[in-house]
Amino acid sequence: MSHTADVIVIGAGIHGCSTALHLAMRGLKPVVIEKDHAGRHASGVNAGGVRQLARHFAEVPLSVASMELWERIEDLVGDDCGFTSEGQVLVAETEAELESFRARVDELRAMGFTHEELIDRVELKKLVPAVSDSCPGGVVSRRDGAANPFRATQAFRRKAIQLGAKVVEGVSVTGFTRQGAAWRVSTTADTFEAPVIVNAAGAWAGRIAAMFGEPVPLEVIAPMLMITSRMPHFIRPVVILRGRKLSFKQFNNGTVLIGGGHLGRAYPDTNYTELDWTKLRESARTVWDLFPIMRQATIVRAWAGIEARMPDDIPVIGPSSTAEGVYHQFGFSAHGFQLGPGVGALMAELITTGSTNLPIAPFSIARFSNAIPKH
Amino acid sequence: MNGAPVFENTYDVAVVGAGPAGLAAGATAAKAGLTTIVLDENPAPGGQIYRAITTTPVRREEILGEDYWDGQKLIQEFQSSGAQLVSGATVWSISRALEINVSQGGKTHLINARWIILATGAQERPFPIPGWTLPGVMTAGGAQTLLKASGLVPSGRVILAGTGPLLWLLAAQILRAGGDITAILDTTPLENYVRALRQLPGFLLSPYFAKGLRLLTEVRRKTRVIKGVTKLEAQGKDKLAEVLFATGSQPATRMAADLLLLHQGVVPNVNLAMSIGIDHRWDELQLCWVPVLDQYGNSSVPGIAIAGDGAGISGALAAAERGRLAAYAAVKALKPEALSHLPAEQILLQALAKAQAGRAFLDTLYQPPKHFRIPEKNETLVCRCEEVTAGQIREMVALGCEGPNQLKSFLRCGMGPCQGRLCGLTATEMIAAERNVSPQQVGYYRLRPPIKPIQLAEIAAMPQSETAVKAVVRG
Asked: Which residue from B456, B462, B468 is facing A298, i.e. has the nearest CB?
């Protein structure tokens, strides 16, 4: 059977679902094709950080725009997505690190962004009393916070469907052919036709891009997370580090999530991930050093999600350089959750108007046109 | 045990669990000359069935029964084999590269094995009736552990409720130890007797037939047994006060009680195997997940085999035979020239077939009814750790939740310290029933290590794996 749509979005992660929602809000009929189910991978199992703090400068405008959507997320999707705004704090472990943070905050100010604020030892202790006394200060982004990633992805999916989008799950894309001005998408089930295609396939987006003749050096990664049993409340903001890899957050129920980007092994063909305890040991050591209270903590679970990383750690967003009507939205390199609402809106704007208000040139897929794809 | 055990970096065979399967596997592999370690989390070997067999304070042999003391033969065979046993050792992670993280004495050790045999045995099936979390309600298995390990006999007004061989065995053991049982509320559906008849000829050949009959007669002579119980609730304010029950369509009766021991069979303990990504399938007769295995017990992950009740419930005798067979396959793979030291493959397979005879009868007769596996009342707790009720799960399914992993995300169901052991089967069966699909289609929680909670401090102090050390040297 064949279906027609205005746009075919591949991948029902938070990005695919957000783009579908914003396209539907603009009156289009998108179809989302998902090989598993919405939020099955990185979008559903990440740490849930809603963070503008410490982003690549190219991402800052997108992140700030996305933050505005997070702050009215309930109006947008009809669900609060578990979003709370207790701030995020980047902790400096040394004076030298604090100095580099100062330079960064100054540079952001010069660009007109004020969400990052340098803090001294005293303010750091006030915001994060449990942090080790050895830390000289840090940076806070007070409006940042965290959300429940699976719930958020599901909320975008649900709202998109309410507004007329279709989400087809458990179906994989197998190929594309050009039919006049439209693309015909063959899948493991039905065939779909639309003039526009959005590749939001996460860790599998490299395969989709390759089908359009533009291979990218996308690396499939499996960032790992650990969670503790319930502990007395001792921290409100999310804490992140720069030198050593750590992100650290306590939930309302008292459990503490420990992440930060140490990688396990990903098996994208079987959806399996394997944890690497040598690296989780590093996370445990960092926590041990920074939060003495955590030395009594018990780890009850660890896991990993499958995600795409680009060599320069920033995503691919924008039109294909080889195929007309094809757009890319992937490679968020383990920090794409917060960007979901904003980039979905931007993508809908790009598809319907042909341009965007925010600068997206740094994310062009053409930046890899001379690169040799990794295997 | 004298001092801390010494772990080698590498063993030919590592066995997880020192119940009948693990002991037999360890002994067989060691006898063939393979370096063998058996890791067991209990203080002493024996597993559940032969728990504390080397240390129990229960002196009178007839209390625990001759089947229990039979375990001594396995212990002796093991002790003379040259295999190393480490007790108090919790295996909390195994990788597909056959690296084992094992916690012992507050420290995690990393062991590499060329072959791994999982003999993690069985656990009791959840029995989620109203009030099952009240103090004064516990599992029959829990009571049996106290009896074997510490000689504790339940006192006061004791009611046993449920179905399955272990319920009757525990009743006999309590009575022989001088305990009293107010009543046994037998939840075995009466129609199961009819269904099981077809399997009776096979069971007549089983070693369990005569023993089982004697056991039932012994218990029935000494205590009140109420058959065909179709409704069961534990009631009380802060602790158990009464058990409410009914048979057939009769009005409910109340019985005062100090202790209610629940049991409705055992199921494979799959957490470790699933955390390695070993393929499992839903067993429609035993109503649980069982690993997909070949005739030796080899799993879908190369180099990892599963023996004993963890491979599907078959009882202690079959467990030992499966242990021998799994070790035989390990020897065949690692040191084929040593096969001559072992019994022939055909003999091992025949011994297993004999030990498994009549299993279908027991599985059919003691298949617990749906209304005790899937709570009918919405306020009944399913996930004890996170206090998730049956009603909340039904609500989520109505909203489009298709499997247990989505339940985790929405309700935290299965995310507590027990890691789904007490709610997983209920969650799967409930979602399947609500969606009107098979449990196979619904699936199970994705399990990941650590399969038992572990101190952050212990992870921080872990040794580096060899591959990581090499990477550092090279760098």
From this structure: B456
Facing residue for A278 by CB, picked from B412, B416, B464: B464
To probe the interface with A, which of B447, B456, B465, B467 has the most A CB atoms within 10 Å?
Answer: B456
From A37's Cα to the closest Cα of chain B, the distance in A is: 10
Q: Are A261 and A302 in contact (CB under 8 A)?
A: no
B452: nearest CA partner in chain A:
A300
Give the mean model confidence (pLDDT) for residues A258-263.
Answer: 92
pLDDT of residue B465: 61
Give pLDDT, residue A344.
Answer: 98
Q: Which residue in chain B has the smallest CA separation from A150?
A: B409
Q: What is A2-51+149-217+312-366's CATH number, 3.30.499.10, 1.10.3210.10, 3.40.50.10380, 3.50.50.60? A: 3.50.50.60
- At residue B150, does pLDDT exceed 60? yes
Length of chain B: 475
Question: Regarding beta strands B10-16 and B36-39, do their DSSP bridges make them parallel or antiparallel, or are they unpaired?
Answer: parallel
- A37, A284, A303 ranked by CB distance to B460: nearest: A284
Residue B474 pLDDT:
36
CATH number at A86-143+220-309 = 3.30.9.10
CA distance A232 to A228: 12
A69 and A341 Cβ atoms separated by less than 8 Å: yes
Inter-residue contact B248 to B230 (CB < 8 Å): yes
> Across the interface, which of A37, A151, A299 has its CB nearest the CB of B456?
A299
Give me the mean pLDDT over the B277-286 stretch.
97
In this predicted structure, the answer to whether residue B471 has a pLDDT above a threshold of 50 is no
Report the pLDDT averaged over residues B170-191.
Answer: 95
Give the pLDDT confidence score for residue B466 in this predicted structure: 55
User: Model-level pTM?
Assistant: 0.92
Asked if B96 lies within 8 A of A281 by C-beta distance, the reply is: no
Domain boundaries, chain A: 2-51+149-217+312-366, 86-143+220-309
Instruction: Round to whole Å and give the CA distance between A43 and A46.
Output: 6
What band does B3 get if pLDDT is binned at 50, 70 and 90? low
Region B334-358: what's the mean pLDDT? 95
Q: Dihedral of CA A257/A263/A265/A270: which sign?
A: positive
Q: Which residues of A touch B96 (CB under 8 A)?
A: 274
- Minimal Cα distance from B276: which residue of A? A274
How many other CB atoms are found less than 10 A from the CB of residue A197?
Answer: 26
d(CA B80, CA B441): 46
What average pLDDT does range B344-369 have in this prediction? Answer: 95
**Chain B positions touching chain A (beta carbons under 8 Å):** 93, 95-96, 101, 277, 402, 406, 409-410, 412, 415-417, 419, 446, 448-450, 453-457, 459-460, 462, 464-465, 467-468
